[in-house]
Amino acid sequence: MHELAICQALIDQVTTVARSNGAQRVSNITLDVGPLSGVVPELLANAFTVAAAGTLAEAAGLTINPAPVRVWCKSCQAESDAKVNRLVCAACGDWRTVLRSGDELLLRSVVLEEVDPAPTLQDSEEKRHV
Amino acid sequence: MCDTCGCNVTPGNRDLAEGRQATQVLGSLLKVNDHQASHNRVHFNGHGVLSVNLMSSPGAGKTALLEATAELLDGDLRIGVIEGDLETENDADRIRACGVPVVQICTGTACHLDAHMVHDALHELDLGSLDVLFVENVGNLVCPASFDLGQHHNVALLSTPEGDDKPAKYPVMFRSADLVLLTKRDLAPYMPEFDATKAANYVRQLGNAAPILEVSSKTGGGLGDWTDWLRRGVTELRTNLAVPSASLGS
Ligand SMILES: Nc1nc2c(ncn2[C@@H]2O[C@H](COP(=O)(O)OP(=O)(O)OP(=O)(O)O)[C@@H](O)[C@H]2O)c(=O)[nH]1
Ligand SMILES: [Mg+2]
Ligand SMILES: [Zn+2]
Ligand SMILES: [Zn+2]
Ligand SMILES: [Zn+2]
User: Fold this and answer.
1) What is the CATH number of domain B31-234?
2) Which domain, by its residues, includes A64?
3) Residue A2 has what pLDDT?
4) Of A10, A120, B8, B121, which has fewest CB within 10 angstroms of its CB?
């Protein structure tokens, strides 16, 4: 269940963004998640409910944009769609490809609520920087 | 969050009439782990220690490989181990019995290691006296691949009894491998259905050009190629670090 660990990291990041913008609440969080990130969107959504409880993102909606799997072929230079376990070139069949999209695990944006009109930036906590 | 890497939050489009603000962030969800991993890498580089993350399903032979490697190298390369068996001290004891310095990670969840756990452990080792540091990850083909530990190389083990199609079933793990070891090859006569060529093809279909070696920790078969790979890795690392721009650790 690494989805829970990932959601806790997500909540930490979102909390930092909210605080540094002087917001009281977060109403939406948008992620980009590719199937080769190793994270299952459904499990992430379930874990989010657990991780968000009692935080300022408690009532936030979670929007997960699935990223397509795309590869670029080193031998014929074509870019094509691929399957997670067949990352081969659709044009020439060569396996020597580079992943162009599909392993994303990104926090894209957040919607903040009750934003203080004069936010202070001093609150961007620097934790665990060893 | 961090001034040095450009991952700072950018101010968003404000719509203050409503007190609502949409803020673009666009950063990795694993940013904190990734920062820690880079820091770990600085430690490894500072001492010219090659760090190798061993990943596999439970029981594929990670600890047995480390035991056999210690015996074969016999101090020729000085190795150390960070042991990620979170439930027992058994694996750590087995490696300690080979005269290899080992630190057991005993905090955290039971399904993967993260960069902070490895950082705490690496400070308990004398990196200056090592050539190669192995991290034996938790036996699991799913989550360990998502967490960068700061290793230089990922090694994925696939044991003969598991079946040759594991790379197709766990593409995230096998795509991340810099070396794939087909282990327990002494069992090949009893398991002819495991086709090493097929296993290799499944790895290639992931766009992965990593070398694939067949080994047996029991008979020692193929382990010479494995230790050669390690030696080359140490040499390459130190050559790269010798270029003037190399970052030196703390
Ligand atoms: N026949 C044979 N058995 C092996 C070989 N390598 C390991 N084994 C056996 O496989 C079992 C598991 O080996 P371990 O080395 O403990 O595997 P592991 O990957 O460290 O296991 P976890 O840490 O629990 O995930 C043990 O009974 C080993 O003796 C091998 O090369 N040949
Ligand atoms: Mg083990
Ligand atoms: Zn995990
Ligand atoms: Zn092509
Ligand atoms: Zn440190």
Assistant:
1) 3.40.50.300
2) 2-113
3) 87
4) A120
Q: Which of A21, A38, A115 sits opposite B145 (nearest CB)?
A: A38
Assign residue A91 the CATH number of its domain: 3.30.2320.80
Chain A CA closest to residue B167? A85
ipTM rounded to 2 decimals:
0.85
Q: Report the residue from A9, A103, A126 with minimal CB separation from B33.
A: A9
Q: What is the pLDDT of residues B203-216, one digit of tens each?
A: 999 999 999 999 99
pTM: 0.90
Q: What distances in angstroms separate CA B5 from CA A65, A80, B35, B39, B124, one per listed residue?
A: 25, 32, 9, 12, 28
**Residue B56 Cβ < 6 Å to ligand 1:** yes
Query: What would the pLDDT profile of A54-75 be if each residue is shown by its tens digit?
Result: 999 999 999 999 999 999 999 9
pLDDT of residue B19: 82
Residues of A in contact with B143 (CB under 8 A): 1-2, 38
Distance B12 CA to ligand 1 centre (A): 53
